[in-house]
Amino acid sequence: MEKITDKIAALSNDANYFSLEFFPPKTQIGFSNLQTRLERMSSALRPLFVTVTWGAGGCTSSRSLELAEICQRQLGLTTCLHLTCTNMKRKVVDEALEEAKVLGVRNILALRGDPPREEEYRLEDEAENGKDEDDSNEDFTWAIDLVRYIRRVHGDYFCIGVAGYPEGHADQSHPTDQDPLHDLPYLIDKTKAGADFIMTQLFYDVEAYSKYEKMLREHESGIFAQIPIIPGLMPLQSYEILMRTTKLAHAKVPLELLHKLQGVKGDDEAVKQVGVEAIHDVVESIREVKAKGPRGFHFYTLNLEKAVSSLLDRCNLIPPDPDDNNVSAIDDVSILFNGNAAHHRALSSASSSAAAQLTTNSHRSSSPARFIPPNSNPLSREATWDDFPNGRFGDARSPAFNPPLTYSPTSLTISPAQALSLWSTPTTPEEITHLFISHLAGQTPKQLPWSESATLSPETALITSELTQLTRLKGYWTIASQPAVDGLPSIHSIHGWGPPGGFVFQKAFVEFFVPASTFHTTLRPHLDRLRKEGEISYYAGNAAGEFQSSESSDAVHAVTWGSFAGKEIATATMVEEVSFRAWVEEAFGIWGEWGRCVGEAARRGRVEKARQSRGFLRRIGKDVWLVNVIGHGYREGGRLWEVLIEA
């Protein structure tokens, strides 16, 4: 039941320490497997403390507390629980803090989260009818409100951390207004309100961090003279994850690092190696600056262990095991990498650049996971989880399955004002169809609600005609897809991934929303016939939790795989029931987020239009089904599109 600041104070002034961040996985089996990973990492790496991210909503927030309990009680790790106050009722905050006390957690990282969309853009009549005396936005609008509340209610029981932004905080409404000086008054207020330490946003620009720390330490108020300032660093897992994360965090990637990565971005293993050296250099640069006490580093792990373990070893940050003088930190990391005999064999790393090969015509990007081909020798799936962290197309059993790349309680990556500008206020299915067709044509909107990027995949051009036909003729709103590929070189400019000298393969697949009436009367009977003929497999779900599939619950479909010299078959993307079910919940939540965003129109005087559009989007979100169809004939490039258009 130690406070972080007490543990730091107990170290010598010239000591180094580190902490690790974990998030609660979205699947139960991933959560269970994370516990095993945490046991291994805590024993081998021995962090000073760990942090657990907070999930918005009852189910996810409960998992955060469950994960905090595992860390604090079962593993004996000093644990810091993230708490985002925006969109949180006071009752939920009170319950979380009381539960933290029960668990022995005495450390809280107080964060704001995203702007309060539900309240900020609630229509006038909804605000009057839906008022709640415990509504979060009466008490918690900014992180400082949470800091003050914790201090007022709980005194000094909790050690409180707050966020710092070395490159400036970029609000979604004003993403270009980044300046640490602009943030400074808010950080001063949070510190005066009772913050005990500062933990920074991830960064790769060490010069920006050095200037930031110097600005704080030398501030005329003296308020930052002694407070622990802990820089946040994220080990590189893949080029795709780096690009997505830094875009969402508005963090700069130095040109020198970007240049090194450009040459190897198709090979994850090479990317990780470049990343280890790059972040090692950042750590060493920060170490060179005399600190006000022990020097700490915080690592955003994304629940992955290999890259962060290698980095900690490279930086000589792992403390010796106090219980065993015969085992060195290097020995511990070797054990962590190799595991026991059952887990010793691992697939070699391919590349998450195959993630970029998933056509994203509004489509979620992904990065490679891995797959055990039916005819290969059985291997431990755990051995390769870190090799292919592939978002929602990864292995749902992995502790790192579909990690959140921001602390946002919402799935949208843009502000309500930006959403209104891109998608307006649709009130008919025809208007939504027009948005999708325009997007496929490369016109406005460049991004749709289910996109993580405003840039279409290079593969999109190869199947734009087919996707447009599905949208225009069938009324299918496609959100993820890829064409079939039969043995192209791994260095192919569009489809290539993995190390040179290999060959890559893809099954065509497409994922789309379709009206319930169409799904039940036309599409599903057609798909069932095709499944009997062995041509396709499909998964389908809706907002109500109903689920239909042509497959058994344990079926796993490789949709992108590769063969590389001297290595076993590796897969970049897979589709299976457990991961699809997890995605269905998120995908339908985005319909609700879109509906809330149209409230921005009311702020501009279009109240009735906003009300109509919100009601329409809610009805659509409740009616449509999300369907994923996989074509098994990867040597018959156009077959999937033909059979779907025939439906």
From TrEMBL:
Gene3D superfamilies: 3.20.20.220. GO terms for biological process: methionine biosynthetic process; tetrahydrofolate interconversion. The keyword Flavoprotein applies. Pathway: One-carbon metabolism; tetrahydrofolate interconversion. Keywords: FAD, Flavoprotein, NADP, Oxidoreductase. Residues 379-644 form the MTHFR SAM-binding regulatory domain. Its cofactor is FAD. InterPro entries: FAD-linked_oxidoreductase-like, Fadh2_euk, Mehydrof_redctse-like, MTHFR_C. It comes from the Eukaryota. Residues 121-136 have a biased composition (Acidic residues). One of its GO terms (molecular function) is FAD binding. Transmembrane segments: none annotated. NCBIfam families: fadh2_euk. This is MTHFR SAM-binding regulatory domain-containing protein. It comes from Letharia lupina.
